[in-house]
Fold Photosystem I assembly protein Ycf3.
Amino acid sequence: MTPRSQRNDNSIDRTPTILADILLQIIPTTDREKRAFTYYRDGMSAQSEGEYAEASQNYYKAMRLEIDPHDRSYIPHNIGLIHTSNGEHAKALEYYFQALERNPFPPQALNNMAVIRHYRGEQAIQQGDPEASESWFDQAAECRKQAIALPPSNYIEAQNWLRITKRSR
């Protein structure tokens, strides 16, 4: 099967792909690293087009090939995004945890975990369970605090939520 990155006929849309291919030829990398990157790039392309099954397949292939822990941490993060989009929040949280195990510094994973926990807190309110709601909101607050601590100028909305709900400490 032709890699997704080679299927797009629009020359403008293919420009980033062409540049990435040139960089892969110039930068000294192993064949394994090149294949991992190609699968990862194809996964991102499929994901951006809403082709989540194809994206997941590419990410799983990339994960089997990628050996750099930092680069590898982005793969489960993106798989988590797919599960979040599909409403599979428990699975998404598992993949965000995997991303953080490989690289403890991506604030996006922490922020996404906070969003899911906040959503679950809202669901608990609708179900009439204020204790569960508070627990989910407290967990969301912890994730938000960690995310904000990494790049303090980001996540202004999260900072405001922490102040409004008096969970900033």
Notes: Residues 31-104 form a domain with the Serine Threonine Protein Phosphatase 5, Tetratricopeptide repeat fold (CATH 1.25.40.10). The two ends are 53 Å apart (CA to CA).
